[in-house]
Amino acid sequence: MIDFRYHLVSIIAVFLALTVGLVLGTTMLQDPLLDTLQNETADLRGQTEDLRSERDVADRVNAGADQMVDAASADMLDGRLEGLDVVVVQAPGADADTAASLGERVEEAGGRIAGRVEIAPEFVDPANTAFVDELALQVSADAGSLSGSGPYEKAGIEIGRALARVPEPEEDEDEDGEEDGEEAEEGGHDPASALAAFVEGGLLTVRGEPAGRSDVVVMVSPSSAEQAGRDDRETVNTVLTAFVSALHDRVGGLVLTGDVPSSHGHGMIAQARAEEADFATVDMAGRPMGDIVAVLALAEDIDGDGGAYGVGAGVDGFLPDPLPEPRGTADTEPSPEPSDGLDEARRVVPDGE
User: Are 342 and 116 in contact (CB under 8 A)?
Assistant: First the structure.
């Protein structure tokens, strides 16, 4: 018969064996385990140093590339926008320095900044959607043509009409000998007044006098840093993409520019490319090579061949290939007086106010 003492001895023996096993196992495995961890740590540290070195080299290469294209920009851009008036449109949260540097490249390509339009945050506020829709209908000379369009498509159409160059009237004499000019503005539409309505509504700020003078448009998308962490990012960029598509239908050419992150996820350029927008997109704006590519893409889009360029997702290439030809002497000359499109902001108001 097995008594209690037998059970106690058995239990003690089991725990003693476990203790001895743990001591022996720890002693035998400690050094190999530490050696393995130290080796892996050293390997990771080496990989980190290699990646840091590669990043530094890439930064130097990019800086050198910017210097090189900056030095060659005069030849690359010469005459590409000759004789054209350009309006720069800034989305809410767009980088002002990027807009300014794009304006300088436009002028280097022979274009002229007719003015700048800044879209207010209130424009994309969901609470103002009905107001945007109503205002577009009020300023339209042909409200019936807006039927079936969304609020921001309507706004894009009307702001595009207000910005697009008004053709010079062709005068001829009627039977009474009076000169009867062909109406340059659809239905007596006054571009300045239409644009002023959006300004007075707190939806836009206008610099210079771009009404009725735009041949082409440079659109600057919101910076990815400004949109980081915002829950409404996708909604805002979808709204802006609809607006830009409608705007493009009313002007001779348009390029949407932004930084590389804006071409991924819910960024505005990513949205436009996902919808296969028919205007040009460039995702490297804000650095010399990106601004130059943006001007080349704009020149290409004038002929209806706008593509997606840069280094982000969904691009056709780094830059247009072949490059667009210089325009030479344009039939349409820029306005004789220089505009202050890049100077201090001033709101446009209707005459007489």
Answer: yes
Handedness of CA 201, 206, 209, 212 (dihedral sign): negative
157 neighbors 250 (Cβ within 8 angstroms): yes
- Residue 30: the pLDDT is 60
Closest CA to 114 of 350, 353, 336: 336
- In 3D space, the residue among 211, 318, 315, 330 whose CA is nearest the CA of residue 272 turns out to be 315
Closest CA to 101 of 274, 259, 245, 285: 285
Question: Among candidates 274, 272, 301, 296, which has minimal Cα distance to 285?
Answer: 296
Residue 87 CB coordination number (10 Å): 29
CB contact at 8 A, 263 and 312? yes
Where is 232: in which H helix or E strand?
none
User: What pLDDT, on the 0 to 100 scale, is given for residue 342?
Assistant: 45
Burial code (b: 16+ CB inside 10 Å, e: under 16) for 279-298 equals bbbbbbbbbbbbbbbbbbbb
What are the CA-CA distances from residue 231 to residues 94, 130, 190, 234, 239 (Å)? 18, 21, 38, 8, 14
pLDDT for 22 equals: 63
Query: Looking at the DSSP assignment, which residues form a beta bridge with residue 36?
Result: none
Q: Counting beta carbons within 10 angstroms of the beta carbon of residue 112, is it exposed (0 to 12), middle (13 to 18) or buried (19 or more)?
A: buried
To 5 degrees, how large is the angle CA 240–CA 241–CA 246? 100
Helix, strand, coil tally for the chain in percent (to 5)? 50, 10, 35
Q: How far apart are CA 46 and CA 244, in angstroms?
A: 48
In tens, the pLDDT along 167-224 reads 765 555 444 444 443 344 444 568 899 999 999 999 999 999 999 999 999 999 999 8
Ranges in the chain, pLDDT < 70? 1-9, 20-31, 33, 168-189, 328-353
Q: Taking the chain, what is the end-to-end CA distance rounded to the nearest angstrom?
A: 116
Tokens of 302: 């004038």
Report the DSSP beta bridge partners of residue 88: 116, 218
